Amino acid sequence: MKKKSLIWVTGIVVAALVIWGWGLFRTVKDVVEAHPELTAESRDQVFPAPEHTVYQMNLKLDPVSHELWGYSLVSSTNTTNGDLDEIWLTTYPNAMREQAASPAPATAYYSGFDPGYLEISQAKVNNRPVVYSYQGISTRLQLDTPIYKNDVFTIEMEWKVKIPRASYRLGGKDGVILLGNFYPQLNVKDARGWHIPENIKFGDPFFSQVADYAVAIQIPEAYQLATSGEIVAIEAEDTGWQRILIRAGQVRDFALAAALHYQTVETYVNGIEVEGFFRGNDPEIDAGVLERTAAALKYYGAVYGSYSGSKFVVVQGPMQGFQGMEYSGMIFLSDEVFKPSFGEERRAFLVAHEVAHQWWYHMVGNDQLNEPWLDEGLASWSARQYLKRVELDVGNKSPGNSANLGKSLQEMGNKGHYYDVAYSGGEAFWAQLEEEQGEEKILAILRHYLAEFKHKTASTEDLRRIIEEECRSPLDSFFDFWF
User: Fold this and answer.
1) pLDDT of 410-442, one tens digit each?
2) Where residue 396 falls among pLDDT bands split at 50, 70, 90?
3) More confident residue, 194 or 25
4) Rounded-to-5 percentages of helix, strand, coil across the chain
5) Stronger pLDDT, 356 or 25, i.e. the higher one
6) Which of 43, 86, 139, 439 is 20 to 30 Å from the Cα of 446, by its Cα?
7) What does the pLDDT average to over 102-106?
8) Domain spans of the chain?
9) Is the pLDDT confidence value at 3 over 50?
10) What pLDDT is recorded for position 40?
């Protein structure tokens, strides 16, 4: 880091101490006192355990230079069944370091290829410097001293992200910066070992646990900020910058978007603030997107169970490769979606699909690298059910078109096959199950699924168990058809 960056980092650490006094951050002491001893059940949890993990981040975003400086303090507990001699984190910006490996389409780079990456300048575990190395989109911390089973520990990192000049879920164009999966995030470890994501050019190669977040970010005053969680304070600075303090509890990831000259609109539904960040080129389409977002939140909450947050944000942005992207408490929609030529039916389905991910991804998580059908198929089926009952009949996904839903992203090979399996195949799975068991049985299954795995992660095996419990019979032939 340059000298001025070091001065800034010192300043934000001091600022963090002030924030702690406001009660926004849970410290390691809080984690220990809140959970003085682990139960037998929690000892078998995957790592990192949601109730034991807190991310504290201090950030500075320069939208002009496309740089983001970060300081992270992560506290957690070793809830694995053994000692840890290494820790793995996902550092997704490194997917865009090399042109040949970048998941962003070539057309997303509007001024030619511009690399993106995340570089760590310092890492400590329990205040001891550790050696770190990059492996694809993951980073390995090698521990000199192991973290023993059930021990509380901290990770401190100073890092920098170079944001690519690209229209992508991590990128920026025309005064808009989209920051999805931008920070170092703990990988999952379970009985099978560490889950190390691979840089796949399609889909969402992620697997993450829920955690608490407290974030302070500096951005220029001219920029508006959209974020996961809630903005709890904004401090103006004499330098033309502003510091924004954010709190997000029990979220699966943390995303940000910063923009110049956006129109913000909001509405409320069931006590949830629904906010839209739009370019304002077509106010009628903007209003329709916001209205549909609120209506979908209301419907899913009534049918499956309440949304877990108090705020939800929709962001329009320059994004190629995806028409929509889901994050905890937030979705990104591409500029294409807001054009009249996109079509009302497509727009309605896309919004409903992305909002459904707040139930089937954010609240009930899954391994998106190895079992992508779990969230994508269910989000598509949920969206179609919502549209049939609330807005317009877009028809059923015809059941009976068998797809091997057990395929991982690596096994799918390309984007087209990914959509055929995870989206179309996954939706057809639920359509056939509904045809055989009836709508009320499906709703009972999904309410059970949400109740048991809210803020946890589920597998195909978990879902099958719940389906057979609710149907009160084994469904071997049904599952043999789809797997």
Assistant:
1) 999 899 999 999 999 999 999 999 999 999 999
2) low
3) 194
4) 35, 30, 35
5) 356
6) 43
7) 98
8) 3-258, 263-482
9) no
10) 40
Distance of alpha carbon 269 from alpha carbon 454, whole angstroms: 21
Residue 61 and residue 111 in contact, taking contact as beta carbons nearer than 8 Å: no
Burial class (CB in 10 A: 0-12, 13-18, 19+), 111: exposed
DSSP 284: H
DSSP code of residue 35: S
Q: Report the C-alpha gap between 375 and 379 in whole angstroms.
A: 6
In angstroms, rounded to a whole number, what is the distance separating the alpha carbons of residues 125 and 173? 36
DSSP 27: P
- The answer to whether 328 and 365 have CB atoms below 8 angstroms apart is no
Q: Residue 397 — very low, low, confident or very high, per pLDDT cuts 50/70/90?
A: low
Instruction: Give the integer Cα–Cα distance in Å for 448 and 442.
Output: 10
∠ CA 108-112-115, nearest 5°, is: 80
Which amino acid would we find at residue 319? M
CA distance 405 to 204: 16
Q: CA of 247: how far to CAs of 21, 52, 213, 244, 346, in Å?
A: 14, 16, 6, 10, 34
User: Which residue bears the tokens 């890492």?
Assistant: 123
Provide the whole-model pTM.
0.91
CA dist 368 and 196 (Å) reads 12
SS3 441: helix
Superfamily per CATH, domain 3-258: tricorn interacting facor f3 domain (2.60.40.1730)
Closest by CA to 319, choosing from 255, 243, 391, 385, is 255
> Three-state SS for 369?
coil
Tokens representing 110?
């509007």
State whether residue 98 is helix, strand or coil.
coil
Q: Residue 36: what pLDDT?
A: 38
**What distance lies between CA 437 and its chain's CA centroid?**
32
Under a CB-based contact definition with an 8 Å cutoff, are residues 270 and 305 in contact? Answer: no
By CB atoms closer than 10 A (0-12, 13-18, 19+), residue 403 is: buried
Name every residue whose Cβ is closer than 8 Å to that of residue 468 and which is 6 or more positions away in sequence.
474, 475
Q: What's phi and psi for 232, nearest 5 deg?
A: -105, -15
If you average pLDDT over residues 206-215, what whole number do you get?
Answer: 98
- Which two structure tokens, joined as six digits, stand for 263? 């129109």
Query: For the domain bounded by 263-482, which CATH number is listed?
Result: 1.10.390.10
